[in-house]
Design a protein that fits this description.
The structure holds two protein chains of two kinds. By secondary structure, chain A is of the alpha+beta class. Helices cover about 25% and strands about 35% of the residues of chain A. In chain A, a hairpin with a 2-residue loop joins β11 and β12 (about 250-255). Chain A starts with a strand and ends in a 20-residue tail after the last strand. In chain B, α10 (about 170-175) packs antiparallel against α11. Classes of the chains: A alpha+beta, B mainly alpha. The interface between A and B is medium-sized, with 30 and 21 residues.
Amino acid sequence: MISANNISKRFGTFQALNGVSLDVHKGRLVALLGPSGSGKTTLLRIFAGLDEADSGVLTLDGLNANGLKAKDRQVGFVFQHYALFRHMTVAENVAFGLKVRRGQNKLSKDAIKAKVDDLLSLVQLAGLAKRYPSQLSGGQRQRVALARALAVEPRLLLLDEPFGALDAQVRKDLRRWLRRLHDEMGLTSIFVTHDQEEALELADTVVVMNKGQIEQVGSPAEIYDHPATPFVFQFLGNANRLVGTIKSGEAVTHGWSWPAPGLPDGPAVVFLRPHEIDLASPRVDAQRAKVRHPLILGPIVRADLELPDGKLIEVEISREEFQGINPEEGSTIKIAPKRLTVFAGTQMSTPLLGDSLIGDDYAI
Amino acid sequence: MSAKDATREPKLVQFLLTSLALLILLLFLVLPLAVVVISALAKGIGTSLAVLQNNDTLSAIRLTLLVAAISVPLNLVFGLAASWAITKFAFPGKSLLVSLIEIPFSVSPVISGLIFVLLFGLHGLFGEWLKAHDLKIIFALPGLVLATIFVTFPFVARELIPLMEEQGRDEEEAALVLGASGFRTFWLITLPNVRWGLLYGVLLCNARAMGEFGAVSVVSGHVRGLTNTLPLHVEILYNDYDFVGAFTAASILALLALVTLTLKTAVEWWHRDELASARH
């Protein structure tokens, strides 16, 4: 088990991490998800020993890793831009971690060669052993970087934006492949991403970070269906943000009301996903709205709907549904939300009251 | 007009630009070199060869090679250490160090030489002490080496700093995570990554070390056969109206530069495959 306890890190005046605690059990594939500057890469680098925490305790499989140098941690790290050794061939790159070994764990030349061959066929690059990194495509480089990291049999595999520099199709293929590899090899992995789709698709646990702190930890479904904070909700996909009020367990916004059990009376932040809106709704609380700028984007249609008070609401519906209603630009329709998500207060990062996911320590 | 023609200059412009470049090359590089060699051979090859057998000339060649052989390796180490520290680590006073490295380029070589006279000369800061311990720096080999090191210090560092900055720290970090020690990371990753820049910097450093005149002139004392380097020897012979001798010595200097250049080309040719693959 990998365990970080109350880790803080400051760069000059910038607080990169502020008291982060996280446990990762063996065999998990964890995503650190957050915007840039949220501290996710810093946390990853602290796990690897490339940066040192100012305070807090880090343990790797029960071993206190504070003060343990990067070279002695036995972790694999895949860099965002791969950091392949440019003057070495693919095979030499993969062999590097085995060649620099010292003492009783040192392998013979033949053993190293056999292992490199195995790894290269595992990442489907057996024919490219003698190429140099500059002669490879982005996806191939990424797989070399992965094979190189796996060669040292890491207790923990760390990946920094592993798909960031690849084009969309390669990214999708590699994602599925990486997930399979992780399961087959029984790895424990943590990867950093700012792409919520990638985190939700690939990871079995998602850690949402913001401003050096953890906002929420949970499975992709938990995170998406029960976001702990307004920040998490907004970061996980497009959302219309509405201002409302809560009174006796019910939130009211723009004429719609929605149950908000257990939330205190007062101001509220209410979110509405663009695809969770009924157009031409027969409901009594349906509001009149003017259709603005319908845009056909392949199979879906995106439009702005203007409420009588001037508030614009973004809506996304399937093209079929849109054609069924067939509203014209400027015409008025009646809309109602299929689902609203209510948070008390006005702050972005205020957790939901009484939510069990919020605490000092997260176990995954 | 086809699309290909759109990105091509007309034949006449191509011809004019190429001729202009060649003309400038001829006028400023080939012609002076040719004049040096022709003047050296003006009184027949026998006279020139006699100059070469002159003891003072031979000792000047030896001294020049010796000074270069000491100062270039030292500057290789200093330059490498300085660029490594500057590009791979953050520390207070870093920008000051970068500016300090440039000083020898901005200070006149004569002043550089004078600094050492003021420090180590008979009436200099450490003059008394050096005399008491019977150590000679000025008007001796150590002074020549010091002045040469000072003047040629920036060559290696200036070649390496931009290169290492562009390469960043990623590969070193990758090596560390894979279990390599700091020294092995430097030896297996950092050094091979900059070796071409290092070679180029060392060659420039060497060319300047052998050709340096100003700073060396101040600290040398011009003792023939003892502290006279080849460039100083050229001046002395010229002032003696020994033009054949002066130009023969100058030809030797030019020849040394050509040997350095040939060496570089040979090494590059030898590693041409690897060079091509290392380019991005």
